[in-house]
Amino acid sequence: MVGTDSLTGQQRFTFGLPALADGIDVVVVAVGIFAVGEALYVASRMRRGPLPLVPIGGSWMSREDFRRSWKPWLRGAAVGFPIGTIPAGGADVATFLSYSMERKLSTRKEEFGHGAIEGVAGPESANNAAAAGVLVPLLTLGLPTSATAAIIIVAFQSYGIQPGPLLFEQEAPLVWTLIASLYIGNLLLLVLNLPLVGVWVKLLQIPRPYLYAGILTFAALGSYAVGASTADMILLFLVGVLGWGMRQFGFPVAPAVVGLILGPIAEEQLRRTLAISQGDPSALITSPFAAVVYTLLLVFLAVGVYLKRRQSRVEEELSHSRAEPVTTEGTHS
């Protein structure tokens, strides 16, 4: 709500500062919460000493690895994509559900927690599928269900493109290009990750004070480039402290960015609807489309609560299984 009201033209919560008249740019908030907030959070919990590294063997999968992975890949994709389309879902939920499923279906349960490839292939496939599923509500309803989708919708709005049911008809080349970019992006990930895995691991050997100092420097440069204003630097620091506090006390940071984008749109449409209906709030739910959307929203929320509880049970089972002592029968010295 900071900035100039789009309906009345009055300034709100600007405290008389001209820099806040245009509102707070979403880039400043996103960089402040995700980059500055994360850097401050890691710095507050940083342990002194070198970072332990696990030695890495070959970067290519063997025939046995492929044989054990292709089924978890398919199952992970089948689990992750529908969960990614649910606003209350998320990649974390899909990952834990896939891990639990692979552990129950595996005939080598004793390897889970000690490098079982099924426990990596399935959850990673579910994670990628959930990330792709985010595009479904984004493109069809204009509803960003993750921080990444929120950044995409900001890019759309900067070009005057409004995601929604008519997007496929009005901007068909853009939509299909975006979908095709998913395939190209995955191929590039293979090209970059497999041959260069040793290079990426070397990045972990950079001392963390230098690493996060570089992150903060580039974050400040990116935010300053948006409006070339020192006020953005102050806002960046304040939002970064807010992001650190949210992480410190366990609050999710993605809804803050999504709310910053959807908040002004929701307020404008709400006030417009109330003006048309002469202040009757029942106009918000009486239309058939609104009734269907609210019903689906309640269903999504219920599914989200169920998935969260399921995830908690899976985490408890994993913690109990790891805490149980491993006993072997028939061993002798």
Describe the structure.
The chain is mainly α. It is built from 13 helices and two strands. Strands 1-2 form a two-stranded antiparallel ribbon. The chain is globular and about 65 Å long.
Keywords:
globular; mainly alpha; 333 residues; disordered C terminus; 67% helix; DUF112_TM; transmembrane; membrane
Output the strand order for the largest sheet.
1-2
| Portion in beta strands | under 5%
Q: List SSEs in N-to-C order.
A: EEHHHHHHHHHHHHH
Rg (CA only): 24 Å
Question: Fraction of residues in helices?
Answer: 55-70%
**Helix- and strand-based class?**
mainly alpha
Distance between the termini: 73 Å
Mean pLDDT: 78
Q: Give the number of helices.
A: 13
User: How can the largest sheet be summarized?
Assistant: 2 strands, antiparallel
Shape: globular
Write a brief structural summary.
It comes from Blastococcus brunescens. This protein is 67% helix and 1% strand.
Q: How does the SSE layout of this entry go?
A:
Blueprint: E1 3-4, E2 11-12, H1 26-44, H2 63-84, H3 91-105, H4 118-133, H5 135-141, H6 147-158, H7 167-170, H8 172-193, H9 197-203, H10 208-227, H11 230-248, H12 254-276, H13 288-323
Antiparallel strand pairs: 1-2
Helix pairs in contact: 1-10, 1-11, 2-3, 2-4, 3-4, 3-13, 6-12, 10-11
Domain DUF112: 1-257
Transmembrane segments: 20-43, 129-154, 174-198, 210-242, 286-307
Keywords: Membrane, Transmembrane, Transmembrane helix
